[in-house]
Amino acid sequence: MKFLFTDSHTGKLSSSKIWTHISYSVATYVVIKSVNDATNWEMLLVYMAVVGGSEIAKKILTVSMGNQKSENKE
Q1: Which is it for the CA torsion 16, 27, 4, 9, positive or negative?
Q2: What residue segments make up the domains of the chain, in order of their start?
Q3: What is the signed CA dihedral for 38, 40, 45, 47, rounded to 10 degrees?
Q4: Which pLDDT tens digit goes with each residue over 10-52?
Q5: b/e string for 21-41 if b means 16 or more Cβ within 10 A?
Q6: How high is the pLDDT of residue 47?
Q7: Residue 13: strand pairing partners
Q8: Per-residue pLDDT for 74 more than 60?
Q9: Would you list the DSSP string of 31-54?
Q10: Is-contact 6 17, C-beta < 8 A?
């Protein structure tokens, strides 16, 4: 579980990872509490889009930054 809170390159605590997990936890709690009502299914869809979209954006940025670093070394 150490990988959830540490930077993979340095092994030190990553404040961005910590705050990301805190915000996802709070959002998940809010969605679970409010989706019990059948009329709030839109909120669940928005929640899934935000969480999924941010993960996709993070992966794209990681790949593009990795490509830029490797091009700069050459």
Answers
A1: negative
A2: 2-73
A3: -130
A4: 878 887 788 888 888 888 887 777 766 665 677 777 877 887 8
A5: eeeeeeeeeebeeeeeeeeee
A6: 79
A7: 6
A8: no
A9: HHHHTTSGGGHHHHHHHHHHHHHH
A10: yes
